[in-house]
Each structure stands twice: as structure tokens, then as C-alpha cells.
Model the fold of this input.
Amino acid sequence: MRSVSANVSELFVSFQGEGLHAGRRQLFVRLGGCPLRCRYCDTPESLVPVPVCRVVTADGVRRRSNPLGIGDVEAEVQALADAAPPLHAVAVTGGEPLLQIDFLVAWLSCRPRELPVLLETAGIMPERLVRVLPWVGIVSLDLKCPSNTGERARWDEHEACLRAAVAAGRDVYVKMPVDEDTAAEEVARGARLVAGVDPRVPLFLTPLTLPAEPTLTIGPGGLERFHALASRDHPDVRILPQLHKVLGIL
Ligand code: SF4
Done:
């Protein structure tokens, strides 16, 4: 194995809370660091590299100093997987995992293939996504609406990422977080973008949840309106809240 290391925030097993595979039990590898600062971010502890990685096991939480080498990460992943079958996938998340692209390529290219890798990304780094796609089976892409992130628009980057994942034949779905502040024209633009690349890619409108409590930040009327709007341009628009917040799990 090459000596590339990673800043890992957390390793744990839980149920996938969002998108096409919500409810499936997965092993999460959460990498530290993100170039964005979405107003609604629910993983603020992963925005910058962290000194210590939390490994959540059935016996409690172990802490390991960062950075972790490829062998360290793989050994922890294997131990968690062996202790907690059955699992659907290894979910690589963040932060923005593509920030640590050299580690991802080095690790994923040499790890066992029993479990597929699900990559959760904000969809803003298409060149890096292309580099890691050969070892990723499932791609979960976000569409970020400037009206609720407070960030600048990234439509071109989102489209390039989606095109790359579709062209590679990956199992891909798109999530668009929405709340009462979300601009209707951005919902419509996102739906057109996804349908324009491939109308078979499902678009999940994800109602945002207030921090620390399972209360949605958008009511049923708003969701109905956004669903109808997006459905004018996209044939497969779905509403799905963040299941892990409803269940009160990691
Ligand atoms: S991309 Fe994700 S991790 Fe980064 S700031 Fe936005 S919500 Fe948080």
C-alpha cells in the first residue's frame, strides 16, 4: 500500500438516512474538511481536519489520532464490517470526501470489493470525481441551492459531476436540500439540469431539519409546491426527509 494518509472524522455503522438507499445499513467513513460552508450544515465537526478520529463500536467510542494511513483505515473498516453484518455498502462521506482525492484513489483502488462503495459528494469537483469513479459503485450527488446554502451557485460543476457519473454507468441519484428559504427558480433549474443529463436519475428533494431536533424547516405546502414545480421538468422527483434525524441515530 502507498503511504498516503487521511484525516478521518468518524467511522461508524448506521442506517443510510438520505436518497435512494435510505434505510439500508451501511458503514460510514466520514472524512474531515469541506470547502463549502452551507448555512444548514449538519456536520460542522467535519468542516476542517480534526486531530482525532472517533471509531464508534458496539463497546463504545475509541479515539485515534489523525492522520490515519491506508492500512489503519482499512483495518478499522474491516473490524467494523466483521462485527456488524449485514451491510449494504461502505459510505464515504464528509465534509467533502473528494478534498482528499489522493487518499481515496490509493485506498479504494487496493481495498477488497465485497461491499460496494457509496460516495456522498457535494458535486463541485468533477475532475476529482472522475479520478475516483473506477472504484465507486454508487454516487450520491448534491445540488446546492445558493438561496439556502449562502454559497455561490455551482450549477456547471454539478452538471459536470452528474454527466461523469452517468457516463461511467454508476448507480447515481441526486439530492437537493430545500427549506422555506429555497428559491423556486433554483428548484426548477435543478430539475431541468438532472433531466437534461438523464431523466432516469431520481431527484430527491430533501427537506432540511432543524439542528438537534427532528423538526422540518419547510411545511407540507412548500414541499407540495416544490415537488409540482420540479415535476414539470423531471419525471422522477421524490420527497424524502433525513431519516437518521427522524430516528435520532448517527
Ligand atoms: S457540503 Fe456538506 S459538509 Fe460541506 S458545508 Fe455543505 S452540508 Fe456541510
User: Anything to note?
Assistant: DSSP finds eight helices and twelve strands in the chain.
